[in-house]
Design brief:
About 20% of the residues lie in helices and about 30% in strands. The chain is an alpha+beta fold.
Length: about 200
């Protein structure tokens, strides 16, 4: 079984947050962690934020029909039908947070799992870059290696990995062959699946 890194917006359109400076500062200060995003986006005090579409550095004006996967920060926003597919495959429905995107009629769902799983061998996995910090910043998995005893066919169809010894999760979203095949078989759009073998 192969593992892929999933990202959104194969067309180049992505979602960005437009929010008061205090909200953006809170997100930067607490790191790119799904729990931080959930806290900020769910807090009634932060009701001044909105998600907007960007293409080639400019805000998309007017109404828009979007692909099934859009990039947002370090995760993806999925259409309702794409979310339903991943949930049917076994992804926890609680891993998603509904969101509205300006100019888009459909509700999208941010993939923000509260917890990651611990299956990656950090000693043998190859990253594009590792920035020594506390916690270390692992940037973009290039080749993944699972921990000893972890069978690929036992992995959930879509997941984020916990960083050893820290609360943070890797920013890569991992999917299995099953998830990729179901996505492509349904004819969904927008997702980019990067092989990690």
């Amino acid at each position: 079984m192969n593992i892929f890194a999933m990202s959104g917006s194969s067309s180049g359109i992505s979602a960005v947050i437009e929010a008061p400076e205090v909200t953006r500062m809170h997100m930067r200060r607490n790191g790119a962690h799904p729990a931080t995003f959930r806290q900020v986006l769910s807090d009634p005090a932060n009701d001044g934020y909105r998600l907007r579409l960007v293409e080639d550095g400019d805000f998309v004006q007017g109404d828009c029909v979007c692909e099934d996967a859009l990039s947002w920060e370090t995760t993806v926003a999925l259409s309702s039908r794409a979310k339903a597919l991943t949930v049917a495959l076994g992804v926890d429905e609680g891993a998603f947070l509904a969101c509205r995107i300006e100019g888009v009629e459909e509700t999208y769902h941010l993939y923000l799992p509260v917890n990651g799983i611990d299956v990656i061998n950090f000693g043998t996995t190859r990253f594009n870059m590792v920035i020594p910090a506390d916690p270390p910043i692992y940037h973009r998995v290039e080749q993944v290696s699972l921990k000893s005893g972890i069978a690929p066919d036992t992995l959930p169809p879509m997941f984020m990995n916990q960083m050893p010894g820290y609360q943070q999760l890797l920013t890569d979203i991992f999917v299995t062959d099953e998830c990729k095949s179901a996505w492509e078989g349904a004819g969904f759009t927008g997702a980019v699946f990067r092989p990690l073998d």
